[in-house]
Structures are given as C-alpha cells and as structure tokens.
Amino acid sequence: MKLIFAVIQGKDADNLLTALRENGYRSTQINSAGGFLRENNVTVLIGVEDPYVPDVLRLIEQNCYTRTQYVNPLLPIMEPGEFYVPNPVEVQVGGATVFVLDVERVERIP
C-alpha cells in the first residue's frame, strides 16, 4: 500500500477532489499556505494499493495546472527620502508536488 501526499494550489483542489471521488478514491484535504508567495495551498492525502498509484498520479496531472503570475519583489532597505518603484516579476505557480510513501500498516478504528 502507498500513501500519496499531493501539495497543490487551492484553485485546483475542488477539481482534483471531485475527480478522485468519481474514480473511487478516498482522500483527505488539509488546507495550508505556501512559503514564498503565501498562497492558499491544499495538501491531499490519498491511500491506495500499489497498482492504483499511476492512475492517481494521472488524475493529479490532469487536474493541477501551472500558471504564470506576476508578483512585486520585496522592497530593498532604503534610506529615508529615497523612492523605489518595484517592477513586477513573472513567476510560475501551481502544478503539484507529490510524495509517494510506502505504508507498513493500516488500521481502521470504528
């Protein structure tokens, strides 16, 4: 058995969770915030038998997209009276970061 951790952008969460449910996979959603851009992220936990891992990875790939976003860089330390206008920087956000872990034991507690 495998445990799949998928860290995805919050915008992709509903589509992915719906696709997983429609294909018979159970999942747990944990809301989080990203480090660099402080964007809304979701960590999805999915437990599956080994043969189903490629199918789950396919669903993640089909429902989690990379996007281009413009952000303002951090302001530099300046002397009083100086004026700085930051130019927006283009960055890629989204997609998914996926971890697949072996599970030694699973128990369901009623």
Furnish the topology, listing elements before pairings.
Blueprint: E1 2-9, H1 10-22, E2 28-33, E3 40-48, H2 53-63, E4 66-71, E5 89-94, E6 96-102
Antiparallel strand pairs: 1-3, 1-6, 2-3, 4-5
Helix pairs in contact: 1-2
Provide an overview of this structure.
The protein has 110 residues and is α+β, with helices and mostly antiparallel strands. It contains 2 helices and 6 strands, in the order βαββαβββ. The strands form 2 sheets. A 4-stranded antiparallel beta sheet has the order 2-3-1-6. Helix 1 packs across helix 2 (53-63). The longest helix is centred in the N-terminal third of the chain and has 13 residues, at 10-22. The mean pLDDT is 85.
Give a brief description.
With 110 residues, this protein is an alpha+beta fold. The protein has helices spanning 10-22, 53-63; strands at residues 2-9, 28-33, 40-48, 66-71, 89-94, 96-102.
